[in-house]
Specification:
10% helix, HotDog_dom_sf, Thioesterase family protein, ACOT8-like_C, twelve-stranded antiparallel beta sheet, Acyl-CoA_hotdog
């Protein structure tokens, strides 16, 4: 093993504006993106996997502090990062890093379909519930729509960040959580389903600012308390960007 003296990083002064809110708190994917970016910056290496727990709602308009510490450094690193407000830990993540960038991969069971951005239908998410939609342009694919009362808990769309330039991994975190919960596709009224855990595996470097990413997200199972969403992100050429899975807490009726 290549173990080095643990290093640390601390970033202060981070304040999320009101347009980054999803329902009552800052969008979870954006929070995870900041934890992921901090881990990569500390390690100076490419992140390949992250598991984050969102322990409480991150308020808008309140200073956040992001920290990162190396539990293991070297060719294979493990970085622990956290976000606090008023000294209360609200999100934590463990990120796996490798000393070299991702190499071209071999993907098994890749999808046959390769829809284009032009195939998508522009959709505006309801900003009364998700003000963060101001920063996300969505073009829906297929028949399902948020709150469409369909039969399949799946959302499929092209999405890109608009009007703001974010650090690459912050943008990736935002895109991993860009669509509403997949259960919204079978509902006609919204309900609170906050993300409490998100795990992602990165297949290639994060997309360039403003790049279109195809998001295919579906609920794979749920019970009375949680719903598990799988998500897949692909570039315009069909290449896999990342795969993720998140646990949503079911709080509404």
């Amino acid at each position: 093993m290549d173990l080095a003296t643990p290093a640390t990083l601390e970033r202060t002064g981070l304040v999320f504006g009101p347009t980054w809110r999803s329902f009552t708190s800052t969008q979870g994917g954006l929070v995870v993106g900041h934890l992921l970016q901090a881990a990569a910056d500390l390690a100076g290496a490419a992140p390949r996997a992250v598991t984050a727990h969102l322990l409480g709602g991150v308020a808008t308009g309140v200073e956040s502090v992001v920290t990162a510490a190396a539990d293991r450094s070297g060719r294979t690193g493990s970085i622990r990062s956290g976000l606090t407000q008023d000294r209360v830990l609200l999100a934590s993540a463990q990120t796996l890093t490798l000393a070299r960038p991702a190499t071209p991969g071999i993907e098994h069971w890749a999808p046959d379909e390769l829809p284009q951005v032009a195939d998508g239908e522009p959709v505006e998410l309801p900003r009364d519930y998700v003000p963060v939609a101001e920063h996300i342009e969505v073009r829906a694919l297929g028949a399902t729509r948020p709150l469409g009362g369909g039969t399949e808990p799946r959302l499929h769309a092209w999405a890109r960040i608009r009007g703001v330039e974010l650090e690459p991994l912050v943008q990736l975190g935002l895109l991993l959580d860009a669509l509403p919960p997949s259960l919204f596709a079978v509902r006609t009224v919204p309900a609170a389903m906050p993300t409490v855990e998100l795990t992602a595996h990165l297949a290639r470097p994060a997309p360039e600012p403003g790049a279109w990413v195809r998001i295919d997200q579906r609920t794979v199972w749920c019970d009375a308390d949680v719903a598990i969403d799988d998500v897949e992100l692909r570039a315009e050429d069909g290449a896999l960007v990342a795969r993720g899975r998140q646990t949503r807490r079911l709080l509404g009726p």
